[in-house]
Amino acid sequence: MGNNLCYQTGERSSLFPQLLLKYEMGNCEIVLTAGPVENEDVECLVIPTDSEYTNIKQNDRPNFKQVNEKCVFVAGNKKRKSQILAIVIDKNFSIKNDDGENEKQTIYATVQEALRLAEQKLMKSVGFPVFQSKDYTTSATIMLMAIKLSLTEQKIKSLKRIAITLDHIEQVSSFKWVFQQVFKGSEQLKHSRTYSSSINTQIDSIDIIQSKVKSNTKEETP
Which domain of life is it from (predicted)? Predict the structure, then answer.
């Protein structure tokens, strides 16, 4: 396991995520932060789970069985933020094919569905943890491209802030690098051909992932 991120503010350790990078698309701000995701300054948190909600407290679980959906919205209260339970932890993830295409499609589709649901529920801001893939560069590329394409292809009006919060030091360099590639263009990249090649390969595969996700969505629609 990696090292958890911890920031020092004066003599005290700050529990609030620290801003790493920010980019504005239209009226929406996309931010990359580091720290405890539960303390992120958002109305709604996306919580990765499985189809049985085994990592969710009994009181927080939805009172119905999840069928062929990727996300469930759980309204918040005075003591807790609203939550979107995102089904991205599944048994078949441990039996990955060589290129992890099924996992990539699941992450991509789930990020877009979570944003659609947050928008539908008129949330102003939503926070994501890292959806783990085979490596952090892949995770970053799929998640950030899913966010970017959601903002360009969907009618996002309510959401004003979308955050991805990192909680391990090993995630930082990959996510910062990919963020700059996806949102700020290749002119920001001057140091690592390895990262650039890997990211470009992942970005090139987004069209294929996108078409497969759309095809699967149509098949699930009754």
Answer: Eukaryota
Tell me the average confidence (pLDDT) per consecutive run of 10 residues in the chain, 222 residues long: 44 71 93 93 94 85 70 88 86 51 84 94 96 85 91 88 94 91 59 44 61 61 52
Query: DSSP labels for 118-166?
Result: HHHTT-SEEEE-----SSHHHHHHHHHHHHHHHHHHS---S--EEEEEE
Helix (H) or strand (E) holding 173: helix 169-184
Extract the tokens encoding 151: 């903002």
Q: What is the model's pLDDT at position 200? A: 54
* Number of residues that this document lists for the chain: 222
